[in-house]
Amino acid sequence: MKDKDIARQAGRKPSRRDVVSILGMLPFAPSLLSGPGSREQALLNDHTLPAKKLFDIKGIYLNAAYTHPMSIGSAQNVKHYLDLRMADGKATDTIDDDRNTARSLFARLINAGPDEISWVPSTMVGENLVVNGLGLPGTNARIVTDAYHFDGSLYLYSELAKQGADVKLVLPKNNKIDLADMDAAIKPGTKLVAVSLVSMINGFQHDLKTLCDIAHSRGALVYADIIQGAGAVPIDVHAWGLDFCACATYKWLMGDFGAGFLYVRKDRLPLLERSQYGYRQIKDMTSHVFPFDKPGTPPFEFVQGDKTRNYFEVGTLGNAAVPALLFSLNYLLNTGVDQIQNYRQPLIDRLQHDLTKLGYQPMTPADSKSAIVSFAMEGAEKKLSGKLSAAGINIQLYENRFRISPSVYNSMDDISRLIEVLS
Fold first, then answer.
1. CA-to-CA distance for 312 and 118, rounded, in angstroms?
2. CB contact at 8 A, 165 and 143
């Protein structure tokens, strides 16, 4: 029994979706689903910024770090998938091929190999798989993290500390995590350094190349949560020497909830143990139980796969995000994350300058190149929610701070309107 046959029936005739999947290593063209000259193809070929025509956004949306709106092209792909699901229960027969295409596109986006990528339901699942794969729970292992890491991750490491782990939390200075403080915290014998590439709090971005060099020199491995970076800032996991990273797809990858990616550097995979088991890990299976089976013992024999996905993909995965990603990942690759960052930077700089001038307390480093800018303000949520709602502007409000995160569909006019409302 072959890999794909374990999850689905064999022997059917190739469908039109199979043709799409066979061509999947090329930039995915929605016209293959809808016909040449389709609206989706036109959208995919439009790299104009701001990309307002690619979205159907109501009002001024400056909250992509919370969740990114799905593009029209992605929504059309999802609709096509749902139409097939509605008409034929076997429409999912080819989803693994599309899933492999999306996996390859994401690998290109972060400069990884497709075999180094596994699907996961969320970023936190990916981080837990790494932590458990390294055998850290219940040990006295030294783990270094920082206060700008994701709050769910900080909870994870606080629980490991209760079990005996030596967890060192590095605190921020001047709206940054000082590399010298990380250097001092990463003692020889440290097992894991876990950080967010881009902080959800204020957009601070780690120098992962230098951080990996420091950690590796002391025998430590590095995990990065890249959910606020992937699709928003250029990422090169091979050049950085990053060991592990994970992200969900509903933020800057413009996908949907319930689907994400875990990267494990190829030579680090043998360091991880499988902590969960399921059919997606099986490369081959032989039965000696049923009629016409070849006799043998034991009753069933299994051969495990040796790719990253065979370590961490266990059972049924979410499907609807896959067709969305086939559009959005191609859009990001064809437009260029570096070009998106260059377009966005003047918007970020204007926010930094004008809102600071208005008296809001900046929380983001002045030289930040990420897509997030944050300000402290006592009672921010109570004081700002009404006026922003009345103006049709969506930013992320917290009790005593607020976060702004523009994306490809925003323009300087959007920034000017926000500043006017906050004045």
1. 6
2. yes
> 90-123: string of b/e by CB count within 10 Å (b at 16+)?
ebbbbbbbbbbbbbbbbbebbebbbbbbbbbebb
User: What secondary structure letter does DSSP report for 5?
Assistant: H
Q: What is the CATH number of domain 101-331?
A: 3.40.640.10
Alpha helices in 290-336 (DSSP H): 308-312, 321-335
Distance CA 68, CA 228 (A): 11
End-to-end CA distance of the chain: 66
Q: What is the number of other CB atoms lying within 10 angstroms of the CB of residue 28?
A: 27
The secondary structure of the chain in percent helix, strand, coil, rounded to multiples of 5, reads 45, 15, 40
Structure-model confidence comparison of residues 316 and 377, the more confident one: 377
Contact 325/249 with Cβ under 8 angstroms?
A: yes
- Given a cut of 50, whether residue 265 has pLDDT beyond it is yes
Does the predicted TM-score (pTM) go above 0.85? Answer: yes
Tens digits of residue pLDDT in 24-80:
333 333 333 333 346 666 666 777 899 999 999 999 999 999 999 999 999 999 999
Taking the alpha carbons of 308, 309, 315, 317 in that order, is the dihedral positive or negative? positive
- Give the class (CATH, top level) of 337-422: alpha beta
299: DSSP letter: S
What angle do helix axes 412-422 and 337-357 make, rounded to 10 degrees?
Answer: 20
> C-alpha distances in angstroms, 31 versus 17, 118, 327?
12, 28, 11
Ranges of CATH 3.40.640.10 domains, the chain = 101-331
d(CA 423, CA 411): 19
Return d(Cα 11, Cα 119) in angstroms, integer.
26
The span from the CA of 196 to the CA of 321, in Å, is 23
